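Quick start: what a row looks like.
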Amino acid sequence: MPLASDLRDRIIAAVEAGFDDQVARTQEMIRFPSLRGEEHAIQDHVFRLLRERGYAMERFEMDEDAITRHPGGAPFTPEHSRAPIVVGIHRPREEKGRSLILQAHVDVVPTGPAKMWSRPPFEPAVEGDWLYGRGGADMKAGHIANIAALDALRSIGLQPAATVYIQSVVEEESTGNGALMTHLRGYRADAVLIPEPEEEMLVRANTGVLWFQVELRGLPVHVREMASGSNAIDAAYRVIASLRELEAKLNARKGDHEHFKDEAHPINLNIGKIEGGDWASSVPAWCRIDCRISLYPGTTAEEAAKEIEDHLRAAARADSFLANNPPEIIFNGFHAEGYVLEPGSEAEAVLGRAHEAATGTPLKTFMTPGYLDTRVYALYDRIPALCYGPISENIHGFDERVSLASLKRITAAMALFVAEWCGLEELD
């Protein structure tokens, strides 16, 4: 049942009282340069934060074999993180409420050229309402908000009257295998909340994602005899043009998808990396492009991969050189489906009440065309999967930043959500 107004006010005031410490904790997290494969130290830090609060703790590695066998698992490559997953577990004295997973990831994307940042990316800085730093918005602010929401309840002598799992994962930016590993480990709850930077809105629909590489061979010759060779980098441009045709074809299907039909460009193809050749005066013998493309919910990763392969094979057959030297397609990362959060769940109603109490405005929903770990819980646990978080700017870009006022509002909404969803009891 909805929270009494006096209890609601006490919880919001508790978040306010603890917010300076919350910001300091978030700054601590930003200082860890937790790039892919380098998250061990920050996961140790998270382990300590949770253990000192008295939570039961587990730390475990990825099970490559189990992930590989699962339809939602992405391929392992040499770059795949081997950092552990960390879970803190709150257990009530008496299980009276509904259980909950609070999840966040610690991995961050590369910074790009340091000279394009106005300040060092792993040295957090506060200017006005904004907290700057790589990974601060995506999503270390949300990570600490998970902990701070529970801290706020504890500060007024209360705790959830249901089991709560606080999960800290890796590989969110590359494969989604970290979240999948928690599922394979057996963690289950009645709902999940992931505070990604979602502009104070709830994600209604989310695209799936595929990563793939296209490797091309050329015929190397000296540039003086260029006409007798074949340039692999030039061939890559033709492949990219063909992939843009596929992208346009996929976007033309948006009318078939309820939550995407009004979006200008719901399916995005990104050519994220291109490398090739060995010498400026030799016609390149090789080129490799790294690509990322989104897919509509309801399309399996296998179906999308087959369409990409079929499209590129057809394009190669129509190319005089590629017909005899077909490109090699390698799926090397994300292999994840999208999801739709169907309206009408009790979890969404509870979050709506919490959001309105914390912000004074009704909760809005939207579609986002990026990957979210929420897909694991929506697709495989089949529970209400809520992705909802603070206002941010420049995630994956330069001068990434999160709004502190928004973060405070979101943390209050999260604490109110936990209180109503899980119920409350007095501290042990």
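That is the whole record. The radius of gyration is 23 Å. The longest strand covers residues 208-217.
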